[in-house]
Amino acid sequence: MIWYQGEGNAWDTKDQKDLFPAMVKDWRELFQDKELPFYYVQLPRFKRDPWYHFRNVQREISRSLPHSFMAITIDIPMDYELNRTYEESVVYDAAHPDTLTERNVHPIHPLIKAPIGERLAMGAKALVYGIKGDGEYTGPMIESAVLENDKIRLSFKFTSDKLKSIDKMPLRGFFVSGPDQKFVKAEADIDGKSILLHSFGVLQAKTVRYGAEEDIPQNSTLNLNLVNQQNLPTSPFTEEIVNESKN
Questions:
Q1: Quick one: CATH architecture of 141-246?
Q2: 3-state class of 19 per DSSP?
């Protein structure tokens, strides 16, 4: 099964943790297959405040729902052949000017569909048919956030090799808060398979998040750049910070 979209549920994020697994359970019962693979697509790059929370719930469900897989699409639209951003691709795809209006810069339904199908297929090949190929079959997923002196170390799954910035620019989209949940921008550096956050100026750092629309200035785009060696994007996330001294 492939489930694509779901933005109509984004206003009921709190209920999604129960509703989505219940739907999957119901469909599996109808098809009399308790292990029926159920794959779904995380909401895309379209900028709308509640969607950040919904994407995070989708990520959490992927960790707990057996025989499921989530395709990450936070980097789409992109021109994957030329490694260009969508804004740069507007010139490249000028033969279709009717599709390149300003309102479609970050469409809810991305004009570029191939990467979505490819990522779903990669998950199916790896998890259903046991064909994993070289490297990872999905993008990095946060595993832990640990406070190390004045820095925070983020560790990830699905990064068998060093993480990287797809556009070779400084990493974007990382924010840290204290108990007051007021998030401030954090500088991020790649340290092999993990990320080190620093210069966030928060006392009693409690929560880190990556890729939240509300943290992005109004006139900017949700343009993230952390990927693994397969150029697969990191899922947006919220993670509670653990103090190293308490481990």
A1: Sandwich (2.60)
A2: helix
